[in-house]
Amino acid sequence: MAFTMAMPTQLSRRQLLASSATLTATAFGFDLKAATATARELKIARTTQTLSVCPYCAVGCGVVVHTLGDKARNVKPAIVHIEGDPENPINRGTLCPKGASLKQFVTSDRRLTRPLYRAPGSTEWTPISWDDATTRIARRIKESRDRGFQTTDTQGRTVNRLDNIAMIGGCTDTNEINFLLGKFRFALGILPYENQARL
Ligand code: SF4
After folding, report:
1. How far is the CA of 174 from the centre of ligand 1 (A)?
2. pTM confidence score
């Protein structure tokens, strides 16, 4: 059996895979477009849709998280599908390969769900409680600030600053979180500040 196809001069990997799948199916007399669309519709039928933002990089693509399950009916909610948000002006429904794997990012059994502590010199990470983690962090911040706070610079000018603690943010931090982080940072006098998102 021979096929003749008009090939574009530049063929992306996605186009090549799609062309191959379509060619194979068409060779057997199937048109997969309708079946693919129906499969997607069945997958997200009855889901709850929640808008969110991909946490991976500074582009900040919008995503739609599809969840099945209803606490009110005693069924544990589960994420069944995550896709690009077609109404988001940043990505208009598209996602890069990392964003397209977001469901695994959320549902992976290797996902960290509790704080881990590695003692100085140790190679082992030990699970600790959230209370323990926040207490340790607060203590370390206090000790570092007591040790590093500068009231004046080398020329005697008042600076009231701290440069031995740094703060970083991520693209999923909301305006409100950043507002509070800013207040916290200025209250302590922290100078180093970075955020991956420059939207
Ligand atoms: S989908 Fe890709 S490009 Fe968009 S925010 Fe996520 S990692 Fe960045």
Report:
1. 17
2. 0.61
Task: Encode pLDDT of 96-138 as tens digits.
Answer: 999 999 999 888 998 889 999 999 999 999 999 999 999 999 9
Locate the domains of the chain by residue range.
39-107, 112-147, 149-199
Q: What CA–CA distance (Å, rounded) separates 119 from 115?
A: 13
The secondary structure of residue 101, as a DSSP letter, is: T
Question: Is 98 touching ligand 1 by the criterion CB < 6 Å?
Answer: yes
Read out DSSP for 112-166? --S-EE--TT----EE--HHHHHHHHHHHHHHHHHHH-EEE-TTS-EEEEB-S--
Q: What is the third-level CATH fold of 39-107? A: Phosphorylase Kinase; domain 1 (3.30.200)
